[in-house]
Amino acid sequence: MDARASWFARNSLYFAWIVSLAATGGSLYFSEIANYIPCNLCWFQRIFMYPQVILLGIAAYRGDRGIIRYSLPLSIIGGIISVYHNLEIWFPKLAEVAPCRAGVPCTFNYVNWFGFITIPLMALTAFVLITLCLSFGRAGRQQ
After folding, report:
1. For residues 90 and 87, what is the distance between their CA atoms, to the nearest angstrom?
2. What is the pTM of this model?
3. HSE on the CB side for 43, CA within 13 Å?
4. Number of domains in the chain
5. Beta strands of the chain (E only): which ranges?
6. What is the mean pLDDT of residues 88-111?
């Protein structure tokens, strides 16, 4: 492993924590300041993102790479939910299979920047980045 890869592996918990912090801050901004009501799938994604801010923050501070085995499943499951949420937005007929029964429909777009960046896409990006950081940190630990 070269020096740059080794540096990234050593700091991967910090990078994952920063991504989780940004994602959590963004979701709280959209719901509490912009007053966008989260749909059901957004709530499930939050369930898998919010704990990571605390877990990864403490682990990064303490240098505890053992958290990777606990945080990685949270990120992967949250990412799977996010993939499904994006599929519902890209293919609205899919939402008819299991429609939201309360609140805002999961296909409703509050944000559509540049014609493709939506809140679920931002969540998916965060889950993928966290998963990559944790996977890279785990691979760096094994060498």
Report:
1. 5
2. 0.85
3. 10
4. 1
5. none
6. 72
